[in-house]
Specification:
The structure holds 2 protein chains of 2 kinds. Chain A is an alpha/beta fold. Among the domains of chain A are: 153 residues, Rossmann fold (3-Layer(aba) Sandwich); 80 residues, no CATH class. In chain A, helix 8 runs parallel beside helix 9. Chain B has a domain of 179 residues: MetI-like (MetI-like fold). Chain B contains 13 helices and no strands. The chains are: A alpha/beta, B mainly alpha. Chain B: One of its GO terms (biological process) is transmembrane transport.
Chain lengths: 339, 312
């Protein structure tokens, strides 16, 4: 495997991503629907942040909004500070210089995220052309290096293959190789393992962690799978109905959740060990974005709710170093312990 | 790029196609009511004359024998001699086919040139005024008879503005193109309408594809995304549509040729049907069928070149 040239050049100069009050709404037929509501978080250089939640919690839209990729008619406000610039306010040309270059993104389903009619070589090449000054021959060499780096066997012989000629896991590796073409400092990964077999899942997560290590990237990993979070993330932000309801170090959150939703999520994950216990599920379903409950959005499904929860939406507030929660009764939740 | 195995397989498929064309051509002509002799000579022929003439033309042989003779002649390049004008059919078709082919080719090119940019505008500005205007215009264009479009274009651009000739075919290639411009435009309207509608839908679909998001996430220029990722994928389904549409276009050429007085196969076909001129009808049907199957071959190969999955 060859090293990435910029590995040294950029060592130690990672950037922090600071997201403040990120709000994305979709104006469909007159009534705007807010999919992401005043979301704020930071990602330090080299850190892996997990963005966790059920389908429809706004985690994928949040990720897309960071690069202004939320689909029309989406409208995104707030700020996404990256290396001193607000991505949301950048002109198109400057935005393009960040996309795929400083910040890259990979998607859930490589079968649909790779263009079916272009060879792998073409799809890596166009990124290299956009972001480097390498000659055609050097780009080909580089493309082989990248496929090599993500663990595609006999990479040189696969350059002219089309996506459908790869297996699912290999296809996801190809997508990661394409994303790495611009030597990103931050990788946005939207459920990168959801479409894969469990064994392959493991390999891909290991690959991402390994690349983080070697390339000094930070990663935002969107997932609904707490197992994946435990395995890969440093910090976690739990999303519910478009808002972050709890953040903190992975170990701390798993040990002592302060939000009833986080607590519920943890209770619904099977754990190892000899003691068998029933799996719990969170009653009810997440609210429709078009008909949000009053007060705390989680109150209809919450066993800790009191009158205030119906009326007042709790703000996300720090309660301990490195931890935040948006719950009126988080102390009671913490004291209740894991279900 | 093109997969050689696919090309070979596709070419082999042409053999049964051609056999089928030969059978159908032969049968269709003999199913036409009436016979060539009475069509030419009217009522004033004797039975003896009829028998003699039939023997001369081979029409007294059993059908199967006639068919094998027909195939034998076609394969040796002999399409027979016109009953009516008494010249070899291949020479007659050789004179009349080129104008029709040039007309069809020009209409196809014009149609694509009109449809592709408009489909993009309509798709990108979906459900806004420009989309509605483009679609509305083509809807009207599509519902107007071809001869009417031809007459309108003639009146405006030839009769009034005098930019183009009112008819004919010209002598040199450049002259042909000049003479055939308005007729091509006439035919292109319906092709463009069909293609535009299909392409617009395809572009809207492709714009929603995740690989377009991925292309954006890679920081590519909008132009590169539109051409390499959107147009190329959207064209795949439209190219498949192109084959049958061009086939229909050849049919439409018959009418357009009469409006613009072009000496193409359309007029020839009608005349020979009236005259029960079997060899000419046969020859024409055969050559048009071959042309159409070659067009299908071409669109299939283009589609395979655009989409590697087709060739698998």
């Amino acid at each position: 495997m060859s090293a990435i040239p910029a590995e040294r050049a950029r060592a130690g100069q990672g950037a922090t991503l600071s997201v403040r009050d990120l709000t994305t709404s979709f104006d469909t037929s007159g009534s705007p629907v807010t999919a992401v509501d005043r979301v704020s978080f930071d990602v330090e250089p080299g850190q892996v942040l997990g963005l966790v939640g059920e389908s429809g919690s706004g985690k994928s839209v949040t990720l897309r909004s960071l690069l202004r990729l939320a689909r029309a008619p989406a409208e995104t406000t707030g700020s996404v500070l990256w290396d001193g610039r607000d991505i949301l306010a950048l002109p198109e040309a400057k935005l393009r210089a960040i996309r795929g270059n400083e910040i890259a993104m990979i998607f859930q389903e490589p079968m649909t995220a790779l263009n079916p009619v272009l060879t792998v070589q073409r799809q890596i090449d166009e990124s290299l052309r956009a972001h480097t000054r390498l000659s055609a021959r050097d780009r080909r060499v580089r493309a082989i290096e990248l496929l090599d780096l993500v663990g595609i066997p006999a990479a040189a012989g696969r350059l002219d293959d089309y996506p459908h000629q790869f297996s699912g896991g290999m296809r996801q590796r190809v997508m990661i190789a394409i994303a790495l073409a611009g030597e990103p400092r931050l990788l946005l990964a939207d459920e990168p393992t959801t479409a894969l077999d469990v064994t392959i899942q493991d390999q891909i997560l290991k690959l991402i962690l390994d690349l983080r290590e070697r390339l000094g990237m930070s990663v935002i990993l969107v997932t609904h799978d707490l197992g994946v979070v435990a395995q890969t993330c440093d910090r976690v932000a739990v999303m519910y109905a478009g808002r972050i309801v709890e953040t903190g170090e992975v170990g701390e959150i798993f040990r002592e959740p302060h939000h009833p939703y986080t607590r519920g999520l943890l209770g619904s994950v099977p754990r190892g060990g000899t003691e068998r216990r029933p799996l719990l599920s969170i009653e009810g379903t997440p609210p429709s974005l078009a008909a949000m409950p009053s007060g705390c959005a989680f109150h209809p499904r919450c066993s800790f709710r009191t009158d205030i929860c119906f009326a007042v939406s709790p703000p996300l507030e720090p309660f301990a170093p490195g931890r935040q929660v948006a719950c009126h009764h988080h102390q009671r939740v913490a004291e209740a312990g894991l279900p | 790029m093109l997969n050689l195995g696919f090309v070979v397989r596709r070419l082999l498929q042409m053999i049964p196609t051609f056999v089928f064309i030969l059978v159908v051509t032969f049968v269709i002509v003999r199913l036409l009511p009436g016979d060539p002799l009475s069509a030419q000579a009217g009522d004033r022929v004797t039975d003896a004359q009829v028998a003699h003439a039939q023997a001369e033309l081979g029409l007294d042989q059993p059908m199967l024998v006639q068919f094998f003779l027909f195939v034998k002649h076609v394969l040796s390049g002999d399409l027979g001699r016109s009953y009516v004008v008494q010249i070899p059919v291949w020479r007659l078709i050789g004179q009349r086919l080129p104008p029709t082919l040039i007309l069809t080719a020009m209409s196809t090119i014009l149609g694509i040139l009109i449809a592709v940019p408009l489909a993009f505008v309509a798709a990108l500005r979906r459900d806004r005024v420009s989309d509605a205007a483009i679609r509305g215009t083509f809807q009207v264009g599509l519902s107007m008879p071809v001869f009417y479009i031809g007459l309108v274009l003639l009146t405006v651009f030839s009769a009034q503005l005098r930019w183009f000739p009112v008819g004919g075919y010209g002598d040199s290639m450049a002259d042909h193109v000049y003479h055939l411009f308005l007729p091509s435009l006439t035919l292109a309207v319906s092709l463009a309408a069909v293609l535009m509608r299909n392409l617009r839908t395809a572009i809207i679909d492709v714009l929603n594809a995740e690989y377009v998001d991925f292309a954006r996430a890679k920081g590519l220029m909008p132009r590169v995304i539109m051409i390499r990722h959107v147009l190329r994928n959207a064209l795949i389904s439209s190219v498949a549509l192109l084959g049958p549409t061009i086939g229909t276009l050849l049919g439409g050429a018959v009418i357009t040729e009469s409006v613009f007085a072009i000496p193409g196969v359309g007029r020839l076909m009608i005349d020979s049907i009236y005259g029960r001129d079997y060899p000419v009808i046969q020859g024409l049907t055969l050559s048009l069928a071959v042309v159409v199957s070659l067009i299908f071959l071409a669109t299939d190969l283009i589609q395979a070149a655009l989409d590697p999955r087709v060739a698998q």
